[in-house]
Design a protein that fits this description.
three-stranded antiparallel β-sheet, 36% strand, 3 strands, elongated, 126 residues
Length: 126
């Protein structure tokens, strides 16, 4: 009497990967996610490789994980994969204080984000 299998959260021609607790603001992470949205995976990997943004390396790892999930778990062809979705969400915010003049304090917010990448297999138009 085992548990029933979880239903798939994506279609049969899709695979996804998710990274949570990324120490960067969602606004900055979304700039990098927008760079790869809708592109073929090899072009997206090349853009992330040469991007000057600090977080591009972590985004590249998530994209490689989504590609590996597509190949190993769902038997999709990696040459015909496209980044279908790359979306960013908020996570927790660390709150800190900084001493200011005359005994006052200023708030420092240190936000965390989460990133989800969905790759989809598309047929080549001949």
């Amino acid at each position: 009497m085992g548990k029933t299998a979880n239903p798939r959260r994506v279609a049969d021609t899709e695979a996804r990967a998710k990274l949570t607790m990324i120490r960067i603001s969602p606004q900055k992470l979304n700039l990098v996610a927008a760079m790869i949205r809708g592109k073929k995976v090899e072009k997206a990997l090349a853009e992330l490789e040469f991007s000057r943004k600090r977080i591009a390396g972590d985004v590249r790892k998530v994209l490689q994980s989504a590609i590996a999930n597509a190949e190993n778990n769902h038997n999709l062809d990696i040459d015909s994969l496209v980044v279908a979705e790359a979306y960013v969400g908020k996570n927790l915010v660390m709150k800190r204080w900084r001493a200011r003049a005359r005994g006052r304090a200023a708030k420092i917010m240190k936000p965390f984000s989460e990133l989800t990448i969905v790759v989809r297999e598309v047929e080549e138009a001949a």
